[in-house]
Amino acid sequence: MSIRRLQYFVDGQWKYSSTDKYMDIYNPSTGEVIAQTPCCTPDEVNEAIAAAKKAFPGWSQTPVMKRVQVLYKFRDLLNQHMDELTRLVATEHGKVWAEAEGDILKVKEPVEFACGTPTLMMGESLMNTSTGYDTVLYREPIGVFAGIVPFNFPGMIPMGWMAPLCIATGNTLVIKAASMTPMTAMRLTELWQRAGLPDGVLNILTCSRNEAEIFLTHPDVKGISFVGSTSVGLHIYSKAAANGKRVQALCEAKNHGLVMEDAPLERTARGIINSAFGCAGERCMALPVVVAHESIADELVSLLVKFAKELKIGPAYDKTSQLGPLVSAGHREFVTKWIEKGIEEGAKLVLDGRGVKVKGFENGFYLGPTIFDHVTPEMSVGSEEIFGPVICVKRVKSFMEGVELMNANRFANGSVIFTQSGHYAREFARLTHGGMVGVNVGIPVPVGIFPFSGHKQSFFGDLHTLGKDGIRFFTETKCVTTRWFDEEEKKNTRVDTWDGSVGGGS
User: Fold this and answer.
1) Which positions are catalytic?
2) In terms of pTM, does the model score above 0.70?
């Protein structure tokens, strides 16, 4: 049986690549190859950038009220195709049905936010900034942006975090989709086309890191939005910024959750299970580390093991499955090696997810929930991102010990506290390094009207994705100062050195 070969999309056309290099796309639930995607050539990357550049003048000059009409139509198409898109995410990534649907809903949410761009792009003005002078600040689009996308959210990241605000503010975009999970983004690109997006405004391709390097130095690329590993993110941030580009680089995480003595343990344990094992742990806002007060640690660990064992492991598109496969055999091997590393480091393995088989799906990339207890600060298993269904439990004697242990980590995407104490909750929010904070909320991701705001080595850049930060990232300000001459001023033969630029001047 022949395997379908995917195309790339540039200037409104789907094209077959001239490359001889194709990358396999798997159904993680079965282990079968379902398609191949091209490693687009440097010429094809340059072609996509050129198409975006060509489209920019017309799209940027389209009134913002007209631009967002495309987003309204795209939102309607998302609603119409919700089940189809959900199944596609589940098939190519391995998210179970509810999680896959959430991926598409997290496309819809920023689209709806971006429909408010006419208001969000409004500038500022002041009459008589100096006598007779008026100043107006405008927000304007910048040009061509590149989006570099990871595998773990094939819908939300390219078409939720990147495309809506970039497009609504009048820019054009080239997306490098994840080679392991490109089909959702490609299908959503087709829906953007149906919604009436002009040719060249959105372009999408797949390639290796070698070809993606073009984005970092190309003079026509004005900014880059990246999601992926910290090492790659730092490279992109450093090199692209050195070439005059604005960058937002969202990187790794090792989120910690502090469980206090007064926390309702069963509800807390359920929340931890949901946040740690949802999406098979393949998300930067998972909760892979539990920092438990010693007095309740034994009971909490017992509950975590009990509830984890109750999870139904199965194929992603089976709506009864609660834990799906990992994205690839290679990634399962990567996570498995981390489990072996935790054992070597001396952590106590209280639940082992290795060797899990699902009847009828024996070739799928499954790994069961795994829990380590008595993880100490010097163990790397408790400080480095594993990106799989693995929980590490660390024990502390006090609130401050817990906070200090959490803040010692080099990542600071999110942090959580489980407590019924308003005092501890307030102090935690004040003291934690986490950019997104949860109080009895296991996944502290705010809705898209707020930014996704990681800190420390979880983020490089100045302006985060989504919220008002997202609008600012995709626009630049222009200040226009105006003076109209009256009859006397027209006769004036002397102009002040500062010519109205000093506020309060006469």
Assistant:
1) 284
2) yes
